[in-house]
Structures are given as C-alpha cells and as structure tokens.
Amino acid sequence: MLDLAAQHAPLIDRLTDKAAEVIRSGRYILGPEVVAFEREVAEYIGVEHAVGISSGTDALTVALMALGIGPGDEVITTPFTFFATAGCIARVGATPVFVDIRPDTFNIDVEQVAAAVTDRTRAILPVHLFGQACDMRALLGVATTHGLPIIEDAAQAIGTKSPLGPVGSLGAYGCFSFFPSKNLGGFGDSGLVTTQDPALAEKARVMRAHGSNPKYYHSVIGGNFRIDALQAALLRVKLPELQGWTLRRRENASRYDAAFSTSGLDESLLRPPLRRFEGHVYNQYVLRTSRRDELQAHLQAEQIATAIYYPVPLHRQECFAYLGYLEGSLPASEEASREVLALPIFAGLGEARQSRIIDTVIGFLGQ
Fold first, then answer.
1. Which pLDDT score, from 0 to 100, does residue 277 have?
2. Could you give the domains of the chain?
3. How far apart are CA 113 and CA 124, in angstroms?
4. 3-state class (DSSP) for residue 242
C-alpha cells in the first residue's frame, strides 16, 4: 500500500544529517526545531497557528480538553472513521453521538447532524475522510445556529481544500496526524493542532505541557502531549516534498477514475469514489464493490496490496455497546463497511504498477 523506503531514498542524506544535528544539539523536547516546523506547516496548511502534538490521537484529545468537554457532554461525530475520532471523546468522559454518513463521499451527513443536536451537545467533530473535505459550509451553518464549536478531524487531510478554504482552518480546532502512512508521515507518532484563534492556540500549548504556563505552575490539568524535536526536524525535511507527492496522488486517482468509470461494469460491481471538491488529497483511494471480499482475495493472490477502511463501524464496536446502537441503526455506514476496498495510491506507485492493478480489478469483476 505504501513504499516508504522508496519515498525516503532521495531524502536519506538530508534526513540523516538533520537527525544528527538534533542529536548533537541536546534539544529534544520542544525547542527551535518544533518552533520552525510549526511555523512552516502552518504556512503550508494555511492557518495562523499550529501546535505540534505527540500524535493525531492526542491532537483530538487536546482539542476536546482545551474546549472544556467532559462528563455529561455529547459530541456529534461519524461512526465511519478510525477509532481515535470517537475514542478520544469517550476518553475525556463525554458521549460520542454517532450520525450516519453520505454514501457517495463517506463523510458525515450534515442533515443528520442537525437532527442530533440536544441540550447536552457541546461540539461537532466531523472527519475529512480519506482526504476529502466535508461539507463545511453546511456544518458551520448548523454549528452557528446552535452555538457549537467544530473540531475538524483532518488526520488524513493535510493540504485538503474546501470551497471555504483549507481544512483545519474552518473550525475551532483542526487535528492532523503524521503517522508514517499519512501523506506527510513521520518516523513514529506525531500530530498537530491548528486554529485561527490565538487564545485557543495558547490553550492547546498549555494542555500539551501538563497544563502548565509557566513551567511548574499549573492552572489546569493537561497531559504530556508534546511533539518530539526529532520528529519535527525530520518532518521539516519532508514537508517541501508534500505538494509534489499530493499532485502525483491526484494523478493516480484520475487514472483510476478514468479506467473504472469507462469499464462498462455495473455500479454495484465497481463504484469509484466521488471527488466532490477539487481539493481532495487522496490519503486513500477507496472504491466500493458488492464483491469486496472476493476481489480482495484475488488481488492478494496476484500480490497486489489492498486494505479495508473500515471493516466495522464504530457504533458496532464492542467497546461502544453501552451506547445502545443496534445493527441497522446507521445503514449507510454499515453498508460501506461491507463494500469498501482501498487500492494503492501513493505518489511513487508508477503507471506500470497502476495499470496492472486496474487490469486485475476490471478483469476479475468483469468475469
């Protein structure tokens, strides 16, 4: 699904030199590399403030804590996402309220968000899934009507644009991940919180340092959520390459789209993802097929990598059974979990390998 060795090969000298520079500096926690990375990545994303965090999961936790969300509160979110989205809501003591997705984009259904607001709702937490922006105009309309902050889960969406602007700049907070498989991947766990509001940025900085400012003086209870200086330094080396990698991902997606849309196969057998906005960055290329498991097995036999994002929606996970969602409660998410299959989309895929994938998919489903 991703060839990190090939991605890093042209950068290896710069990466190793930068790692050695950090080691020699003796500055491993925060410090100048973190400050520089925060400045550079904020400029790339298009936000005023960026706060380096220990992981994408911790970025969500910091955002929730900084907004004072906790026991007795509800946060509306999607069940069709990576576990951290809802897990962080539960970890701070709040209740995740799941609403269904749009089957065409896999993103949260805004009409259902509006219907789910109660007097206990304290935030809306949409996910820009697979690198495609949610309908932020409509979500902001709901949020404004009810006086609610939006926390954007942009873990898979660095550089994604919506008609209103870059994701991560539109809500109270944006949360990004630099897990190694992301479009901008680190060398371990790391993440980012973004905001346009200087007061919210300062709250995030305080939260990531055990709630202290200045050091050893704690006005609130935070946590140890700091990005490592080494991660920040290595991400600085990779960041200038990101735009080029993103363009190649989009080119790969366009080749898939063209081949699959003209395959002659019924939509139930093969449905490529909808690119609703031009700003999609394709952290994943996820198609739908009623023969998902058979296709995956065939591709595996042909030594073609695939992945299922996600096999069980969060409202059907055992740990969330206490919320009382039954099978069929959120049908679009459940159906997607039975049909989705991600194909390789990384920048270094190459046309020859991609053509083999396309031919194998269409050949099998066309039998």
1. 85
2. 4-99+106-241 (3.40.640.10), 242-365 (3.90.1150.10)
3. 8
4. helix
